[in-house]
Amino acid sequence: MGWFAPQFGSGQSVDALKDSILLDSDSTDTIFCNNEYVTNIRHSPTAMVMNTNGGPMVTKQLCDVPFLGTVWFNKNSLTNIVSLAHMAERHKVTYDSSAEKAFFVHSPHKIVKFHQLSSRLYGMNPRQPDKVFTQVASKYVLRQLRDNNLKLLSARQQSSVKKVRQLHHALGTPSARELVIACTCVLSWEGKADTNYFIYKPTM
Asked: Is the pLDDT assigned to residue 7 strictly greater than 80?
């Protein structure tokens, strides 16, 4: 188990720490301390020693966490720590610092965000769903949805979409309706107007 940075707890109440979940790239194991986040707390036939700034902490219990499986449990742990390596084994994890300083975990039913905290570590609080679960708010997620939609089109259709997108930006990003009107006017002027031409709307 990796060393847990003591500055994470600076200025935060014990309850706030117990409610938080840290995504830690330095940890080799996952450990929870909040029994409301887990099920089936039980004795472990083996023990795990966690090195902390307060000294070694021995853990002799296991628990089950949705979408993570069996992990360690110790009510005396400062906070809930998820190993990034463990998470990446279970789910796709993405990070794009140019869009947002946050890790996005793509679970089967939602995308969970671990944002950068004031301590420069990455964590989240399940009791604040507006800051945790993001399906449409992230620019990264929107780009991913756009790319998935493009995969449904043929190569020729994708080429048309890219051309329309380039035109859309060149015209100052008008609304979809205004863009269709502008394209219709141009094609009418060239004698090529065809309502079927716009059956594949641009994915912005």
From this structure: no
